Amino acid sequence: MYYIKEYSYSSLWDKTPITDVQRRNSERLIPEVLTRLDHESVNTYLNCLKDGEEKSNRIRLAIVGRKNTGKTCLTKRLLRESVEHVQKTNGIEIHTLKCRGKVDEGDWIFHDGRTYENEIYSRLLKCCIAKSKANPSLDSNMANDYLSSKIPDESVSEKPDNEFNACNLEEQDLNPTTFYQAKEVPVQDFYDLCDIVYAEIDAEDTAPIAIWDFAGDREHFNTLQTFFGQESIYVVVTNVMDTIENDDPEYGLAFWLETIRCHCKLPVDEEYYNEYQEPPVIIVGTHKDQFKGNNIDCKTKFQRKVHEIVRNSQIRRNIRKMYVISNTDDTDDEFDILRRDLVEIAKSRKQWNIKTPARWIHLEKALFENSYGKPVVAKSDIAEIANNIIQPITDEEELERFLTYHNSIGTYVYFSDLPEYVVLDPQWLESAFKCIITDNQFQKDLVHQTEWEELRQDGRLSEKLLNEIFLHQEDYIKKYRAHLLKIMEKFNIIVRPRTMSDCIYNRRNHNV
Ligand SMILES: Nc1nc2c(ncn2[C@@H]2O[C@H](COP(=O)(O)OP(=O)(O)OP(=O)(O)O)[C@@H](O)[C@H]2O)c(=O)[nH]1
Ligand SMILES: [Mg+2]
């Protein structure tokens, strides 16, 4: 490893637009110790990674309900996007990094083009600010300990590759005394801090909002349940007119509420003591513009009908609020009410303000940088990456907690009982499911007509047909075939009969 001497900072510093940092500093967002970008700044950063914490306030909205009810339109209205030319959703559309909720007032802030990388830097910067404010006089002993632990073993003569050679940085002095006196710090940490100090941060406390817009078609229903979880706030969308006149008992509002209840059931004791049950559910009746009568009438009739539907179900304790809206006619003010309420609901939850280690953000950053866009990574590779970050995570249990937590908030898909792989991109998993569970893909293939017929008629998915389906997939789906099938079995999307080894049954007994 190579190290950078303190005086080298200034030459790098000259190349960067210092005025930006000074401006932010004058706004008192970033403590001076960080903006100096010197030895102490790096130490603050390292201390932050060692024992800093992040308030993990993330709001995840799951927009569900039967098809054509206006889920995508609602998503777009919430995001202040146009509802013209809205297309039927095919699977799930995940909207992240587009908006945040102000913690105090509940108003939403909209971002234009913030990347995942910017977001990670911004989160790290917030942790560093919190850390340096909590501990203005830096603990130099801790910093020295850290630096000593980074001094390379003198017995190792071969120097590893250095990606920063091009910057003409000084090579390390192997004498530990000179090393500390020269106040050297590892070059990577310094570059990390440069990126972080320039990150955008909100002046107020905000929480990122992710919106998952689900397809309402029956064909997608089996696979989409895989993405239901306790952490989401469920927004169940229904057409006001259909609900008031005759809620479809098979696939209408009652069906969706019952699905949420089944998937997200809490242990009995928690249910018993809480007035409200988790997860929160709000019901949004759309197409208010088609109701013949005034708004109050529409609301009253809708609420009465919903009460009737949930009267005998436990789900009534999950329902926090009901709204009637028009995606086409209402002004943005109507949606502002909904936006603020959603932040309020998020704030009322038990998991609001829980803290996670700042080093977890660094691992997220490392996974992003090391996966090169791969949607799936073996858990063993993740363990390796976690072992090699600035503040390594070597404890298997901590890595497990990191992955389980990120599964729960929807960053990655990871199941402890299928621990081989981690899906870094949930949208990829949903696309991969579609290669099997889809209405009309591949069905023109006459070669396997008999197998397709069997699948349509009695849900039998032969190994031969499965091979054919995967043959047409991209390498990244082919490669993880076994893992994909295991996930589908876990969620009963497909069932392998015990008595037959040569076939897999799809649970659905009609078209896939
Ligand atoms: N008049 C009126 N039309 C609406 C309203 N909301 C949605 N629509 C229309 O209903 C149709 C379906 O809207 P989407 O938002 O695509 O419905 P969806 O629930 O996302 O449908 P799937 O993706 O198939 O599940 C579109 O033609 C919209 O323009 C509303 O409040 N009033
Ligand atoms: Mg849609």
From TrEMBL:
Cited Gene3D superfamilies: P-loop containing nucleotide triphosphate hydrolases, Winged helix-like DNA-binding domain superfamily/Winged helix DNA-binding domain
Pfam families: COR-A
Keyword ATP-binding: yes
Documented EC number(s): 2.7.11.1
Annotated organism of origin: Mytilus galloprovincialis
InterPro entries, per the entry: COR-A, NOL4/NOL4L, P-loop_NTPase, ROC, WH-like_DNA-bd_sf
Substrates-to-products reaction catalysed: L-threonyl-[protein] + ATP = O-phospho-L-threonyl-[protein] + ADP + H(+); L-seryl-[protein] + ATP = O-phospho-L-seryl-[protein] + ADP + H(+)
Keyword Nucleotide-binding listed: yes
GO molecular function (one): kinase activity
Top-level enzyme category: transferase
Residue ranges constituting the Roc domain according to the UniProt record: 52-349
The protein's name: non-specific serine/threonine protein kinase
Keywords noted in UniProt: ATP-binding, Kinase, Nucleotide-binding, Repeat, Transferase
